[in-house]
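Appendix C reproduces, verbatim, an entry submitted by the partner laboratory led by Prof. M.T., so that reviewers can inspect both the input and the predicted structure.
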Amino acid sequence: MRQFVVIGHDAPTTPEFSLDDLAGGAGRVDVLCRCVTSAFFLSHAIRADVRVHLVLADEYTVSFDGNTLRRLNPDERSTAALVRNALEEREEAIGQIPVETSPGVSLTRHGFGGLLDSVSGEGAVVQLHEDGEPAGDVAPPNDPIFVLSDHRDFTAAEQERETATGEAVDDGTDTRPPDDPGCTRQRRDGCPLCQSGSDTIANAPDPGRARNLATQTTSRAPTTTRRAPRCATRPSAARGRHW
C-alpha cells in the first residue's frame, strides 16, 4: 500500500468555492486534485493499492481509497467537485470518525498532526522535498507514506511534526529501540549501523521507520554528495535525505 499526504495550506474548508477558479479563489485546489489523479490513474484503470489524503488548511482531511474509489475522472474540475461534496458533509463528521461522502471518498476532522498520528503506524513516513536526493538513487521503503506540500514550503511546525512522527534519518539508518533516550553520534555497541560503518541505506541492517527523501527537480543537477555515516536523529534531519 502506498499513501500520499498532501498539505493544502490555502485550501478551503467550506464548499463555497468555484469550480471555475481552482487556481485562484479556491486556494490552489487544482494542485491537490492533480496529486490525486497522478496517484491513481493508469492507462485504463485505477491503482487499488493507493490512498491519498488531502489536508485542508490543517482542519479537515479528505481521503481517497483506491480499493473502493468510484466516479473519479482524470480532470481536475470533477476531482475538485468530489472535494467540495465532501466539505458539504463536514457537519456529519463527529470527532475522529470519518464520514463517507461518495464511494471511496471520506472526510475526517483531522489536521496534519492528527492524520500523521493515525497513519504513521501503517508504514514508513517519507518526506518529498525539492532539496533531497534524486528518487532513483534510493530504494523506497515498504508501505511508504509520502508527505508533500502544495505550492508553499513546509512550515517549521510541519517539519518538526514529521521528524517526531517517524525516526527521521539523515544518512544511514537509525536502529534505536523506541525507549532509547537518543543516539549521541558515538560508536555504540548496540547500534548495528555504528558497528558496520555503513553509509548507505542499502547496506544498513534495518530500513528504519521513516526517511526524509525527496524528488530531484528537473532544473537541478543530480546530487551525489553524501555526509559522513551517522545513526543520530537530529531536528535538522527532516531536511536531510528526501525521496
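Residues 76-88 form the longest helix (13 residues). Additional entries are available on request from the coordinating office.
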